[in-house]
Amino acid sequence: MSSREDDEVLARAAVAALTRQLELTPKPGLPDPRDLRARVTRRDLCSLRWSAKALTPGLAAMAAAARRTGRATPELRAELGSIGRCTEHSVALTGGGHRGALWVLGLLVAAAALDPGATGADVTATAKRIAAHTDRRAPRRPSRGSSISATYGAAGARGEARAGFPHVRRALDALATARAAGAPEPCARLDALLAVMATLQDTELLYTAGPHGLRHVQAGARGVLEAGGTSTEAGRSGLAVLDDDLHARGWSPRGSGGLLAGALFVDALPVTRV
């Protein structure tokens, strides 16, 4: 298989991981296949699936850039940033969305291309080396996420990447634990999402709900896990309460959704590697 085909395989695997995250249900405060509350309709979800597919060329280009560069250099970081901004523009033409997931998946796809033998924590370690460099071509105006990070001292998307995606690793551990306990795969993925929500300083939540709201969501996620997780009756009951609560308040833990997609991508690498 050619190098170009290798890059496309990684890109398609990343989009498949994002699609699996989108299709998972019930996700507290996040888009999923249910057509219940008016906040997210089936039409909206179809748009999100379509725009997820629009990430494929950009992700393949990121993989190609990493493979061509061969090392985690400042030049690679700058090229990934440029590709990411172009991809955001293309995705906006299809309905938008997935900005946070693109950041996570782009770095992980580049890391996987840079170190073809790596899996699990090794992939996140390679992504950490890439993210350690400053994107010299990035716009100088602060983003909403970076402004919120500065205001509240949260790590934010950049801090998460520079730390080697600790919440991707946390999600991978939660997946492994739930599977080992015999949980069905959807429940294992929901438990992984809740494990991320329980500790992530989600800048989207900080923006919409403030520190008190963030702590409220974190406590709710921990409560479901402490009740036994989503494969138990108590856990499912707790998840339903949390889901209703977040939708009623209009709070969406979007950062957790993107990180779960990243974990599902890394988790699939042994079967998608060429």
Structure report:
The chain is mainly α. It is 72% helix and 0% strand. It has helices at 3-23, 42-53, 56-69, 74-92, 99-114, 121-131, 144-152, 156-162, 166-180, 185-197, 203-226, 233-249, 254-272. Helix 9 (166-180) packs antiparallel against helix 10 (185-197), helix 10 crosses helix 13 (254-272) and helix 11 (203-226) packs antiparallel against helix 12. The model is unreliable at 35-43 (pLDDT under 50).
Give the topology.
Elements: H1 3-23, H2 42-53, H3 56-69, H4 74-92, H5 99-114, H6 121-131, H7 144-152, H8 156-162, H9 166-180, H10 185-197, H11 203-226, H12 233-249, H13 254-272
Structural class: mainly alpha
- Biggest sheet descriptor: none
Average of per-residue pLDDT values: 89
Terminal CA distance reads 8 Å
Number of helices: 13
**Number of separate strands:** 0
Radius of gyration: 18 Å
User: What string gives the helices and strands in order?
Assistant: HHHHHHHHHHHHH
Query: Strand share of the residues?
Result: under 5%
What best-fitting shape do the alpha-carbon axes yield? globular
Helix content: over 70%
Pick out the low-confidence regions. Answer: 35-43
